[in-house]
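Q: I'm writing a short explainer about THUM3 protein for a general audience and would like to include a description of its predicted shape. Could you first generate the structure from this sequence?
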Amino acid sequence: MSEGRHEAPVKRDGALADETPSPDSFSVVIGATVPTGFEYTAADEVREKLGAESRISKDRGRIYFEVRADSLPQVHQLKSVDNLFVVVKEFPDYHFKDTKEETLEEFEELASKLPWLLPLEVWKLNNTLKKRRSRRKGVLRAACPGEISSDGRKGGAKPEPQRDPESADSVIESNTASERGAASGTGKGSSAAAKEESQHGDVDSEEETGDSCESQDEGKKSELLKFRVTCSRAGEKHNFTSNEAARDFGGAVQDFFLWKPDMTKFDIEVLLNIHNEEVVVGISLTEESLHRRNITHFGPTTLRSTLAYGMLRLCDPLPSDVIIDPMCGSGAIPLEGSIEWPHSFFISGDNNTLATNRTVNNINYIHKKRQNKGSSHWGLRIDTLQWDICRLPIRTGSVDTIVTDMPFGKRMGSRKKNWDLYPSCLKEMGRICRPETGKAVLLTQDKKCFAKAVSRMGHLWRRSHTVWVNVGGLHAAVYLLKRTALAFEKAEARANLKTKSTEEDEEERRGPEVSDAAPGDT
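A: Of course. Here's the predicted structure. Afterward I'll give you a sentence or two in plain language.
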């Protein structure tokens, strides 16, 4: 997809040539990582919001689409993508050499042959957008006025930043700078510079004395871009490792641009994505995943906002719909829904006090964020309660859609408890959901238990669609269920009658009980 675009020359020192096109005069290919299983959902969003057609990558969890460079702000507003990168060059059917040495040598030669100019122009444009966002972000780091502490009291101290438990990478082999050390900075003519940096630290910033020539050299060095190369590889037929590919390709990139390798405080991250015979070289446009956009208070099972968005798109919310998340955790689903579908009404709840407090704090964060932007409509159409999932304080047949992340039985609950919990949940969900038009979108990794529960509740629910997803390395599924047309009371009466009839048939098959007495004993 990257072939055929006009490329102006790139200077050896990494600076762009003077004749650079304006952002509205050229197009680039953008790559996006998305929740595995929701590639087509992300493609639909790109078509809807950007008017661009997407191509689903052979490597699950990635899509590619072509847009004009001035559409970059709209690209960053996509809700179904985790990370973004601009494609430098794509090789759909790369022919690797027979030996490891030949393959790595070809990677080294590749760096100087790639069309870098337009992707670097997009990277520069992206930096201006990041500066604007970082200026706005400073105000939001203070605690929200109505923040609730872990003990349930308002005005508690702001907790320490919590690590998102769902941010683990997929099970493909991936090497970042922390794993490689200075691997991507090694190569022809670069090992000495990397060694000197590791021994002496950032010498350029510490030496402030010297003659005029030295100070000029220092100024020149400080202008050099710092970079790293990240290689992710999937496939068993490669005769090299991700570490080796990143090391040799990174060394060639340094030799070509004269950039300075830095594994932590880098300005630019070059991506080398290898999936079987597919090779894609790109430049990262996101420093952290976009799925963190709404959540500041993480719990042990916080759902990614991007995955929550994909689940909500499955149920296609309509204006005035009442949508419930009965096991809200940190509130990712109702928050995403109330922001993207503001004309629907969302109710979130959980049986855990800490979970409801986290949800309220995340809602307050969005309120504060909107108020700082000067929005006159900063409130969200969302309520939060603490309740028992099996006894919801909601009228029968009053809810349009249920969207929730059910306990997997790993971090929360247990597989044994799920055998009782799942049928009870589906029964209560069937009670509050509108007959015939009601829907439920449910995420779980305990697929065997869920299938059995749906089978038992067949009088209330029928399975419509299943999306297989990867959640933190776990193979899970998102189920779209449709409510049957029977009213809850009639459905339950019919189910009880069927159960009773089944028990009677079973007794008939067993026949009359045989006496244990001997034939002659009377």
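A: For your explainer, you could say: The mean pLDDT is 80.
Q: Perfect, that's easy to follow.
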